[in-house]
Each structure stands twice: as structure tokens, then as C-alpha cells.
Design a protein that fits this description.
Length: 201
């Protein structure tokens, strides 16, 4: 069965792909508004980990709505949630039997409710899979430490093909850099560069 996994090049979505590969033909799919070329980072990670890779273009109106939500709220949560649900719809509209993402048990954003998942499945005739839904952050970190070579740092310094990169760029373009600093708190990002040396041997 073919599965499209929403992919950022980070540790969570990479671990999700590894957990699914015994059961599905996994294609990593990076959703993009075409604002930046950050999808290239995810493509490199897909290549380094041996997965097929595609991109899917998202609706510009959704990006504009997300940016305005973030400015109005003063934080990114609702904007990122809005984009994530749209991205799942876009991947579900591709030729896959199942769609998945790398959300964990304790993620606040993005998240997909049971009703949203059932609606996605019913409307698109796909299965929605959340392989990390039973894993907390500690469990994910332990598995990642054993398996993947990960670069970690401040979000503005780590290349990653998630929604945040493009939403930051759009926010700066539509407003200014001060708006970006106001909306997005400082936090750490990860970028997978391949398998760990021990795992590769």
C-alpha cells in the first residue's frame, strides 16, 4: 500500500517514516507555498534515508489566512494548525492509500481530532495514520538518538522544510521582522542529516 507522509526533514517525521516502512511504500511529501526553497532540505534528508520524495503545492489563500491568524493572535499555534490541516488535505488528494504525519502524543500543535481524521478518511478514501501518537517526547528522543544523525539549534539557524520557515518568510514580507519575533517564540529545531554511524554499520 502506498502512503504519503507529511515531511519536514526533522526527527519526528523521519522517525515516523522509519516506523511505517515495514508496512507501507512510504513517500515523503513536503507541502510548500513556494515562498522559500526549504523543501530542498527535506529532499536531501529523504535521499540520505532512502525514501522517495515529492512536494505538493498549497493554496496561497491558506498561507495568507494563517499569517493573519498569527498576527491577530500574537502566537503561531492557530496559523500552523490551519496550514497542517490544509496540507493533510493536499496529500490525501494525491494518489495514496494512506496519509500520515509525525505528530506525537504530547504535541499541542499541530493536532488532528478524531472527527477531523474520520472526515479526511471518508472524503478522500484514505487511511490517516499517526505512528507517533503513542510516543511522548522522551521516547521519540531516545529512538532518534539511537538511529539518526540530527543537527539541533535555534529555529532560525536550522534548515527545515516545515510550515514555520515559509510562514516566517510570509510574515516578514507582509508585515516585518519585528512581527516575526513577536509571533514566533525562540525554540529549538532539528534537521536529520542521515542515519547515525552506529546504525549505519
Amino acid at each position: 500500500m502506498d502512503l504519503g507522509l507529511l515531511y519536514s526533514g526533522g526527527k519526528d517525521s523521519t522517525l515516523a517514516a522509519l516506523l511505517l516502512e515495514d508496512f507501507y511504500d512510504v513517500t515523503l511529501v513536503t507541502a510548500s507555498f513556494g515562498v522559500t526553497d526549504s523543501w530542498e532540505y527535506a529532499s536531501r534528508t529523504a535521499d540520505a534515508t532512502g525514501f522517495d520524495f515529492e512536494t505538493v503545492e498549497l493554496d496561497d489563500d491558506v498561507a495568507a489566512e494563517a499569517v493573519e491568524k498569527m498576527v491577530e493572535d500574537g502566537y503561531p499555534r492557530n496559523g500552523i494548525q490551519h496550514v497542517h490541516l490544509h496540507a493533510l488535505e493536499a496529500v490525501a488528494g494525491m494518489d495514496f492509500d494512506a496519509v500520515a504525519d509525525g505528530t506525537r502524543r504530547d504535541d499541542r500543535v499541530p493536532s488532528v481530532s478524531r472527527a477531523q481524521a474520520q472526515s479526511l478518511e471518508d472524503r478522500h478514501g484514505v487511511d490517516y495514520i499517526v505512528p507517533l501518537s503513542g510516543f511522548g517526547r522522551g521516547a521519540v528522543d531516545a529512538l532518534v538518538d539511537e538511529t539518526l544523525d540530527v543537527r539541533t539549534g535555534p529555529s532560525e539557524e536550522i534548515p527545515k522544510a516545515d510550515y514555520e520557515d515559509e510562514l516566517r518568510a510570509l510574515l516578514a514580507r507582509e508585515h516585518d521582522e519585528k512581527a516575526v519575533a513577536k509571533v514566533f517564540p525562540d525554540h529549538t529545531q532539528t534537521y536529520v542529516e542521515g542515519f547515525s554511524r552506529a546504525d549505519a554499520e
